[in-house]
Write a structure and sequence with these properties.
Number of domains: 1
Strand order of the largest sheet: 1-8-5-10-3-2
Structural class: alpha+beta
Oligomer: single chain
Strand content: 25-35%
Radius of gyration: 17 Å
CATH class: Mainly Beta
CATH architecture: Sandwich
Order of helices and strands: HEHEHEEEEHEEEEEEEEH
CATH superfamily: q2cbj1_9rhob like domain
């Protein structure tokens, strides 16, 4: 496996808990991204929305460019063996009950029998339980090794209520901190009950030597001979994630248990 952080204590924490909170952006970088998010606004159709769901491919590319211009260097500094492959703005509108994001795992982007991709979530405002900070189940990244595609059924639907009652805790953060987490980590966020938008950035970091692999219809995969194999009804897309997202043909992905960083 590719070594994520140069600090071994962070790697141990990531391996044990599935996530690490660390400093990421200076205040001026937070301000630049907040301005970009305001300029590159997408139409609001729901209390929770992410620019990766936008229909306009050129708009998504503009968002990617604006975010990478600010975040690529600090991310490379913290994850020297990783590369930034996806970036989007993730917003909870003010005082919207429909801005809650249920507990889920994020999509797969690499062969996880060989590599671990990391999602990075960075709020551009201070966050807590009232405006939709992340809630996580520490260690849950070890519960499943199946590829994760949009449209998949939730693998833990029958025990989700019990998980949330007993094993979940909030991760309040100040603007500019980053949560670096394994995409298999179960996480979600409550609705934004405040009078201010909760604006954040979500990124996917992939080991530099890993091929991008993004599954469609992974519920058709099966475990065999210590590896995952897929049936003819499943699809695996290779190539740059910016191009992978374009295969939706201008339409947002279907609702599912796996979503972009929340």
């Amino acid at each position: 496996m590719t070594r994520a952080f140069s600090d071994d204590s962070l790697n141990r924490s990531l391996e044990q808990k599935g996530y690490v909170v660390s400093s990421l952006l200076e205040p001026d970088a937070v301000s630049r991204l907040a301005v970009s998010c305001e300029v590159l606004r997408s139409p609001v159709t729901h209390g929770f929305h992410a620019t990766v769901h936008a229909k306009d491919v050129e708009f998504r590319r503009a968002v990617f460019s604006a975010i990478t211009a600010v975040m690529e260097a600090p991310l490379r500094q913290r994850l020297p063996e990783y590369r930034l492959r996806m970036a989007n703005f993730v917003v909870k509108e003010a005082s919207r009950a429909d801005s809650e994001v249920g507990f889920h795992q994020d999509w797969s982007f690499v062969d996880e029998s060989r590599f671990v991709s990391l999602n990075v979530w960075c709020p551009l405002v201070d966050v807590g339980p009232d405006n939709g900070c992340l809630h996580v189940m520490a260690g849950s990244h070890r519960l499943s090794v199946a590829p994760r595609a949009h449209g998949d059924a939730h693998p833990f639907a029958d025990i989700l209520a019990k998980i949330r009652r007993r094993h979940v805790h909030a991760v309040p953060m100040t603007a500019g901190l980053g949560v670096f987490y394994d995409g298999r980590l179960l996480h979600g966020s409550p609705p934004n009950r405040t009078d201010r938008r909760r604006v954040s950035v979500g990124c996917v970091m992939v080991p530099a030597d890993a091929t991008l692999l993004h599954p469609f219809g992974s519920r058709h995969w099966k475990w065999s001979s210590s590896r995952w194999t897929r049936s003819s009804s499943s699809v695996m897309t290779r190539g740059p994630v910016r191009r992978v997202f374009a295969v939706w043909g201008g339409s947002p992905p279907p609702s599912s248990s796996t979503r972009p960083p929340c």
